[in-house]
Design brief:
81% of the residues lie in helices and 0% in strands. It is elongated.
Amino acid sequence: MNAEEKLAVALWEADRHLQTLQEALNEWDADPVTGWEALDADRSKVRLVDQLLFRFTKLQDTLGERLIPTTLALLREPFEAWPMRDRLNRLEKLGFLDVNQWLAWREIRNRLAHEYPDQPAIRFAALLAAIDAASHLAELYGRWRQQIQENQRSNAAQ
């Protein structure tokens, strides 16, 4: 599979996660829950939160595992031997992302992996942070996708 085909696959996968994530974010924004107890009592909200968190995680994975390397390949960067931090730093210099924000999203994701059954306020705060991060990740991907398309148009014109 060549670089263009890998990019097409990465964008297709990210687009799928983004669409479902945006639908879930819109549904959440239309009727948010104010506390863990209210969330826990409403099974449809639990399913919505599961979808939000799943798609946040999947979009983050797709960007990290597929779009980062395909973007760097598209830009003819010699990234193969670079650790992830160097890849992120390079993409930040190119205007695709903010490294500190990316790392903060990873930390939020790590917090979601820890359950605190006796501390619902902590669990709910982690959930709200993840929902906020998901919204920002969706925005980042939209800008990233646009930047890739502009780069492709520029390369095609040359």
